[in-house]
Structures are given as structure tokens and as C-alpha cells.
Write a structure and sequence with these properties.
The protein has about 200 residues and is mostly helical. It has helices at about 1-35, 50-60, 60-75, 80-85, 95-115, 125-185. The longest helix has about 60 residues, at about 125-185.
Length: about 200
């Protein structure tokens, strides 16, 4: 009972920490990517996948590489923070990855849609794809290894607890058996008929 309560408290702490860190991260994303951009003109919104990436690499590969790397890192922390909010150590890799990528895709979509309301910013499907790719890579790089490490630690403590409980149960069982044996011995003690001592 105490171990389960401790595990529930730890999971709650992880969830709360994940929510707080995700809020801080999204606040930073809003500050750096959704501020008005004072420029004389902006490109039209790009809704065709890979159009901007091809154009950037065709014009200036180094600038395009910087754009790609920066976009990968914008929402990448969400790939770790979203599973942290879930607080599940034994989640399957495929299920966790699918849930994280889906939730990250929704975040990336919201960020790109909000750009349409900010002066000097335009929506770009290539940027959104890079956001999602960054989330997926961060999840694969951090979450499975972290969960495996936690699973390796958890069974050891659980096995120790089970052994302790089994030892306690064995001790109680031995004492109960001893009491029962004593009871039987006392209850079944044969009575010897009184024998007169010869004069």
C-alpha cells in the first residue's frame, strides 16, 4: 500500500513538472516565433510541402541548413515533455511515439495558424513539418532510453518489497503454525490415569 502511494506521488510530481515545463517552453516559443516582424514585405504563405526547403537549399544551402536546424529545435522539447505529462513508465514505444507525434502535430499546427494573425509572419507547411520532425527525433532520442532505465530500477525495488512481504508473511505463518502446533499439543495432551503408589 505504501509503495503504491509513493509511486502515485512520484507520477503526480512528474506530471506536474511536465505541465509546468511545457507551459514555460510554449511561452518561449510564443516569444521567439510569434512576435511581430517589422519587415517591408513577406513571402506568401506556403501550403505545398517541401517547396520552401527546396527553394532555400537551391539559393543558399548554409542559410537553408540553419533554417532547418532552428526549426527542428523549436518544438523538440515537447517530444520529451508530452510523455512526461503522461507519467507512464511501461508505455509501449509505438503507442507513446504515435501519441506524442499526434499531440506535437497539433501544437505545430496551432503555432503556424497563429502566425497568420501576427504582422510580418506567414504560415509555412515546411516549417510545421520540421517542427514535427524535431518532436519525433527528440522523443526517440530520449524517452525510450529514459523509460528503460526507470524500468530497470523499478523491478529491483519491487522485487525487494515482494521479498520483504514474503519474508514477513513467512514469519507470521511460522508463528501461526507454531501457535497452532502448541494449541494442538496442549489440546491433545494425553491424560494419564492416576496410579496408586504401592505401600
Amino acid at each position: 500500500m505504501q509503495r503504491h502511494a509513493t509511486g502515485g506521488t512520484a507520477a503526480l510530481r512528474f506530471r506536474v513538472a511536465g505541465v509546468v515545463l511545457l507551459v514555460l517552453h510554449l511561452t518561449a516559443v510564443w516569444w521567439f516565433t510569434l512576435r511581430p516582424n517589422a519587415v517591408p514585405w513577406v513571402d506568401a504563405a506556403n501550403l505545398r510541402p517541401l517547396t520552401t526547403i527546396r527553394a532555400e537549399f537551391g539559393d543558399d544551402p548554409w542559410s537553408a541548413l540553419r533554417y532547418a536546424v532552428e526549426s527542428l529545435f523549436v518544438l523538440a522539447p515537447a517530444g520529451v515533455l508530452l510523455p512526461l505529462i503522461g507519467g507512464r513508465v511501461n508505455a509501449s514505444l509505438a503507442g507513446s511515439f504515435a501519441r506524442t507525434v499526434f499531440a506535437g502535430s497539433m501544437l505545430a499546427l496551432v503555432v503556424e495558424l497563429l502566425k497568420t494573425t501576427v504582422p510580418g509572419q506567414v504560415a509555412n507547411v515546411d516549417t510545421m513539418l520540421l517542427y514535427i520532425l524535431g518532436i519525433a527525433l527528440a522523443h526517440l532520442a530520449v524517452v525510450p532510453a529514459t523509460r528503460a532505465r526507470l524500468r530497470r530500477r523499478h523491478p529491483a525495488g519491487r522485487a525487494a518489497g515482494v521479498a520483504h512481504a514474503a519474508g514477513a508473511a513467512g514469519t507470521e505463518g511460522a508463528e501461526a503454525a507454531e501457535r497452532t502446533a502448541d494449541g494442538k499439543a496442549q489440546g491433545t495432551t494425553p491424560r494419564i490415569t492416576r496410579v496408586e503408589i504401592a505401600p
